[in-house]
Amino acid sequence: MRTAASSWGHIFYTGRVIVTIDGVAASGKSSVASGVARALGVPYVSSGLLYRAATLLALEAGVPLDEAPALLTHLHAHPLRLEALSAGNRVWCGKRELTDDLHSSRVDGGVSRVAALPEVRAWVDAQLRALPAPFVAEGRDMGTHVFPQADAKFYLTASPRVRAERRARERPEDVPAIEAALIERDHRDRAQSAPAPDARLIDTGTLPLDGVIGAVLAALPARRA
After folding, report:
1. Which helix H or strand E contains 93, and what residues bound it?
2. Helix (H, G, I), strand (E, B) or coil at 26
3. Which residue, 193, 179, 98, is CA-closest to 143?
4. Residue 215: what are its φ and ψ, rounded to 5°?
5. pLDDT-based confidence at 153, cuts 50/70/90?
């Protein structure tokens, strides 16, 4: 199958192609991945939403965020489903959609603890690897661990202040407080947020969203299914 991202003057051959977009928190991974996926006509996959959903369910049920066995037992009893769409991902627990509740401050504060649990990471990785390609996958260690065989890998970065200002436009919170939280999150996430050796690094701090999407599309290799 051939998909042309004509507005960018670039042709990309899909098939079972996987593109990964990693990066630090609030660097624009979801927005960029969604834009690239729309341009290519393929779904995008947000691994972070599964970690956020697991965190939300644990918080609601009073399950300790550091106890992997209890958390996994709760997840198996309340299965999550990631609906991967090019325009945006949705997460369901049975008939309940969790998507709108996944970006609260309390989930922000706990998701790194949940994502640091090896057992939970293995559970999320299994959900992601079961998805049929082609797709654009965004999130921590997508190019280094989950999809090391990916055809193209990108890593997004920006200064903590730039990222805090972006997040403040989405939520009514103080920029310095958000910046401090992001710096702390960067420290906690360091083990999962290193770029793959073959990833292309993009500083999103000086580029508009369309510019970052264009940079990714321009760097994609032409492929035949």
Report:
1. strand 90-93
2. coil
3. 193
4. -65, -40
5. very high
Q: Which two structure tokens, joined as six digits, stand for 20? A: 């990964």
Comparing C-alpha atoms, which of 75, 28, 13 is closest to residue 50? 75
Pair 145, 210: CB distance under 8 Å: no
57-to-62, 65, 80, 118, 206 alpha-carbon distances in Å: 8, 10, 10, 18, 37
Residue 134: cis peptide before it, omega within 30 degrees of 0: yes
In the numeric block, which tokens belong to residue 106? 């309390």
Binding residues for ATP: 23-31
Q: How far apart are CA 209 and CA 138, in angstroms?
A: 15
pLDDT at 223 (0 to 100): 55
Cβ proximity of 52 and 111 under 8 Å? yes
In the numeric block, the tokens 């890998």 are attached to 153
Give the angle subtended at the CA of 5 by the CAs of 3 and 6, to the nearest 5°.
115
201, 157 contact by CB (below 8 A): yes
Distance CA 142, CA 148 (A): 7
d(CA 195, CA 202): 11
Segment 181-184 long-range contacts (CB within 8 Å, at least 24 positions apart): 181/108, 181/109, 182/24, 182/25, 182/26
Residue range 176-198: average pLDDT? 82
Q: What angle do CA 77, 81, 84 make, to 5 degrees?
A: 170
Q: How many CB atoms lie within 10 A of CB 160?
A: 19
Domains assigned to the chain: 7-219 (3.40.50.300)
Please tell me the predicted confidence (pLDDT) of residue 10. Answer: 45
Q: Determine the 3-state secondary structure of 159 from DSSP.
A: coil
Measured CA to CA, the distance from residue 129 to residue 78 in angstroms comes to: 20
Q: Which residues are annotated as a binding site?
A: 23-31
